[in-house]
Specification:
The complex is a heterodimer. Chain A has no helices and 11 strands. By secondary structure, chain A is mainly β. In chain A, the strands form 2 sheets. In chain A, strands 2, 4, 5, 9, 10 and 11 form a 6-stranded mixed sheet that branches. In chain A, strands 1-3-8-7-6 form a 5-stranded antiparallel sheet, with no helix packed on it. Chain B is globular. Classes of the chains: A mainly beta, B mainly beta.
Chain lengths: ~110, ~110
Amino acid sequence: SQQGEEDPQALSIQEGENATMNCSYKTSINNLQWYRQNSGRGLVHLILIRSNEREKHSGRLRVTLDTSKKSSSLLITASRAADTASYFCATDPIAGTNAGKSTFGDGTTLTVKP
Amino acid sequence: EPEVTQTPSHQVTQMGQEVILRCVPISNHLYFYWYRQILGQKVEFLVSFYNNEISEKSEIFDDQFSVERPDGSNFTLKIRSTKLEDSAMYFCARSTGLGYEQYFGPGTRLTVT
């Protein structure tokens, strides 16, 4: 598998339900970022979590990071139809080695049905 | 969230032509990046740029590609002789420093015919 792999590839839920997406990576990281992309549009930065952090919240978003398992999860609570988008994780390597060379995963396509 | 703008939003060019994609800077953002996303595929890192120099580049960023800040303001990506496989969305991103949030522009859709 590649650096920054998300699962599931696609997720379909009803409005109001929670959505959980996972990201796994291979090499040691400085930080991990989650992005949202609406179809054909640019990437919107959601949350950055550093390697020494375990959990971060932003509104309805909750991100966890487990560096021992090299994995992260993005939880969207009380989903809305407007949350329908693709979600990507991106990892930044440890500063000093390819610093700034973010590696993106394939993304999870989330569909929230009204 | 800081606003990042890119021009043009869509460019159609013939194979072999040169294209220049532009990104408008934010004053306190010192690091610049270019990424591309081929339709239906993942976002791929091309190059990072700091202090008027390339910091990192990927295998994709070959001699056909170049970046510069020609007048200290706009940040440009030039593709010297486009190929069909260069057709993609090209995103500019900025950050205040390495390891900080990267803010992406809306992208330029490049179509090479």
